[in-house]
What we know:
This protein is of the alpha+beta class. It has two domains: 20-104, Multidrug-efflux Transporter Regulator, Chain: A, Domain 2 (Orthogonal Bundle); 107-146, no CATH class. 41% of the residues lie in helices and 24% in strands. The strands form two sheets. A four-stranded antiparallel sheet has the order 3-4-5-6, with no helix packed on it. A hairpin with a 2-residue loop joins strand 5 and strand 6 (139-146). The radius of gyration is 20 Å and the shape is elongated.
Amino acid sequence: MAFGEENNPGFLKRMRNLDISMGIGETSRVTEASTTQIRYWEKRGLIESVSHGKGQNKRYNLENISTILYLKMMLDNGYTLNKAAEMAKERLANVDIIRMFVSTRVNRIAHDGENTLLNLGPLENDPKFDVIADVSDGGVTLNKEENGKSVKQGD
């Protein structure tokens, strides 16, 4: 069971189904990309607006806004649009992998002073032990600990 589901089984489903989007003007304002750029990038297939019905304005979801921000940043740093688009595509693929990892492997989170402990569930080749990520300002360490010994239940 992924993090959060043990206490609120519908939470993750509701989070995944949130419909958070902005019109082109607001998207332009928050990303500092012009509406012309946004339309061009959409025409090129780099972003894809969402429509909420026939005759309604195009809207841009959080994934699109993130891509627009990234494209704008890369262009401002001297990259070509083609290179920026290639890098944005790779970045989105990595974000999807991380999202899947977190949603399927983070079972519990606990705070221990200045450290945060993430229980990543049992080892595949030794299911009596959990993988515990100990996160601090100094970095991340991974440890193998007996099931349920390190990270408090329900945190």
